[in-house]
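Write out this protein's structure.
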Amino acid sequence: MFPNSSNLGRPPFPPKYQQQSTLFTKLPLNIPPTLLSHQQVIVPPFRFRTSVGNVEATPAATLVTLQPMTYGSVSPVSTLDALTSFQGRKRQSQQSVTDGAKRQRIHPHDSDTTVVNQAVPLPEERRHSFPASSSIQSPVLHACRSPALIGCVPPLQDTSFPDPTETRLSVAKDELSQQVLELFQACRQQASDLNKKELCRTELQREIQLIFPQSRLFLVGSSLNGFGTRTSDGDLCLVVKEEPVNQKTEARHILSLVHKLFSTKLSSYIERPQLIRAKVPIVKFRDKVSNVDFDLNVNNVIGIRNTFLLRTYAFIENRVRPLVLVVKKWASFHEINDASRGTLNSYSLVLMVLHYLQTLPEPILPSLQKNYPECFDPTMQLHLVHQAPRTIPPYISKNGSSLGDLLIGFFKYYATEFDWSHQMISVREAKAIARPDGIEWRNKFICVEEPFDGTNTARAVHEKQKFDMIRGEFAQAWQLLRDKRDLNCILPLKAIKQKR
């Protein structure tokens, strides 16, 4: 897709870090020493060495499972055997992408070996994929795994839909529930949608690594968490180093270089790049090849962690994804799903749905962070984040409410029951809790706790007028659905299915 770009600038840290392979010897307590992309990437023909010998890739573009990486001499885990202890099946190569899908993205390299999507490579003997089986149980997964239980979260090669949980979707016995399911089936993210985003991520990473050689680019958010739609934007997290990055200074400088790259060398493929100087600055852009809009941030690793927390909630109970998709479509249609205009972002809406399902008299969802703390440890190394949730079994709830009844109950809860003035929405605690007395929460109209870092994800709602509009939409949706039990009364279903 992109030409090999030249260096547009130097990383904003001492030059010695650019010249050594043993980059960091002293690691901060809250940042993991290793980085491993949780995604499989498409690469041109190349030769690579596995732990069992040399393998030559097929002439076609091939999907390759990435290998564990580390900075300097720090091992990803205490021993090599611990790394090979995951008992889930090894990620298999998917079908090669067709020539039409690749277009001009894939280009051959002159060398026999291509360095793909990696920070500092491990010594050759330590480059291992996760094996199919092992007699050693991972210490991370041991506490949250039972041999008799099968995990509910599909592995990443099954991110494309339909997925293994498809046969477990609710049976809709009433018209409203059927409408919810049909909208979900029509609008949810498809394999082709995800492949477009992954192709762009792969090529952008290759170009960005010419400026920041130790960087990794992660696809995060709705594209991977199970709540994506056919029109969802792509969210990217650029991890430049394992140390924290000052978002006001260093992150902005890094993004200014990325913005320059997009505006010059990659201008034939990237359009409308904008540097947005928000609390977490981003570069917004559109990929001309895939026609997908993207937001790219720097070192916002919380986004990587919460992607897989939400992914687990998405697949742990079969009513969750249809409900979330309908709520997101409803909020977008009624113009209360845009943080840049002082309303709710999609992440807050998802947390609001999860919170509601946790707080029913007979809960439909638990607190995953309470029940499986080892699987959602906020200090877990990034290369383990995508693996741990796959051991969690489905949640069996005694609540047999239909999708239609749950949707009506969702609107009723926020229209009449939730105390906006004194309570905070907490998925981490699985309940509404009293607002803290910090500046993050004081005088805020809506308080939604981020499950990992405790910030307010709904801080964009800072005008009473916008808050009143949001509450009014919840109340109106509840009354209309309660009386008519027809999704068309709050959403033009035919038009939305066509747009998707």
